[in-house]
């Protein structure tokens, strides 16, 4: 099981992913509140097959 944390802001968001033991699986990513930014977040999720 994985957990995704997202810090929501007006212009930019920050997301990170951990496993069930609390181990971080990658550095967090920053993405803008735009279609292009959401595509970046989707690619981040796709990398982990989520």
UniProtKB/TrEMBL annotation:
GO molecular function per UniProt: DNA binding; transposase activity
InterPro entries referenced in this protein's UniProt entry, alphabetically: Transp_IS110-like_N
All residue ranges annotated as the Transposase IS110-like N-terminal domain in the record: 4-42
Gene Ontology biological process terms from the UniProt entry: DNA transposition
Source superkingdom: Bacteria
Family matches, as Pfam families: DEDD_Tnp_IS110
Record protein name field: IS110 family transposase
């Amino acid at each position: 099981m994985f957990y995704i944390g997202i810090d929501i802001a007006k212009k930019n968001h920050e997301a990170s992913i951990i496993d069930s033991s609390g181990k971080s699986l990658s550095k967090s990513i920053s993405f803008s509140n735009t279609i292009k930014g959401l595509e970046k977040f989707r690619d981040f999720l796709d990398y982990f097959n989520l």
